[in-house]
TrEMBL record:
Highest taxon listed in the record's lineage: Bacteria
Domain EAL as annotated: residue spans: 24-278
Protein species of origin: Coralloluteibacterium thermophilum
The organism's taxonomic lineage, starting at the top: Bacteria, Pseudomonadati, Pseudomonadota, Gammaproteobacteria, Lysobacterales
Name of the protein described by the UniProt record: Bifunctional diguanylate cyclase/phosphodiesterase
Stretch of the intact protein here: 469 to 757 of 757
Residue ranges that the Swiss-Prot or TrEMBL entry lists as coiled coil: none
Amino acid sequence: QAKALGRNTYQFYTEAMDAESRRRATIASALRKALERDELRLVFQPRLSLIDGRITGVEALLRWCSAELGEIPPTTFVPLAEESGQILRIGEWVLREACAALARWRQHGLTDIAMAVNVSVLQLLRGNLPEVIAEILQETGVPASRLELEVTESMVMANAAQSTAALHALRKIGVSLAIDDFGTGYSSLIYLKRLPIDTLKIDKEFVGDITHDPDDEAITATVITMAHSLGLNVIAEGVETEDQLAYLREQGCDEIQGFWLSKPLDAQRCMAFVHTWQPSTIAAVPPPY
Ligand code: C2E
Ligand code: MG
Ligand code: MG
Ligand code: MG
């Protein structure tokens, strides 16, 4: 009987795995047509300086509404696009679209905000990213200093030597560089010190628990101190509550991003949000004692 049960369990898992890989194949093939069919779009999430209460920039986040499959989240399709290499084409579209949006906002007077774009390590390692970006900046008239590229810690550390070289090449053209999802990978401090980066973004997993979990509180405080001692700017992502905000401010975190400030918005709404934001709004948040 145990044997039969074992076989059934095995069969169950195999079928579940088949269904999962079929779904992934379906998504990957629909994704191949997404660009041509105009199914991709960007939304933008603002971030805030805790030092002066200003909006310092926005992060471009990719959305895909497939005609066949409906809305698919980037956490599902970005890894598939990386596996198939499609992220190269899609990533270039994202960079061009994000810079074009920023160029329009700049014409409306928003000249001191930065555009952050997530870049896959595949784009980073392909070699011609600096040329592609230089061309896009020229086309759109966005200054290099207003573009920030975010690469995830785990991806960079998995290819540390090559990534370091690629980041140096990007640095040369004047863009800013941020390590995303910091705390989820296993950075060696030696590498971190060698990376030509400007910013660390603390992963939302830690931020989400800072007011309940002493470990996450300690990790967050330590990352802030460490980043500052390396001369880096620190952004906390996933800030949802006033308590989290107050704690981060007390710890000296430079900037925050998250639902507390705003969800990701379409270009029009995001521009309006930045235009109407009053730095004094932030002063109303009380300290955590
Ligand atoms: P990420 O770069 O770390 O982006 C932050 C994610 O957290 C976004 O999810 C954002 O919507 C979400 N978020 C923001 N504030 C909060 C909050 O207060 N609470 C919670 N729970 N979540 C919050 P999203 O848009 O689903 O993107 C997920 C990931 O997909 C991104 O993580 C990034 O790694 C990847 N991604 C998104 N767009 C692109 C892209 O254009 N290129 C590449 N290579 N990756 C992208
Ligand atoms: Mg990011
Ligand atoms: Mg992140
Ligand atoms: Mg936790």
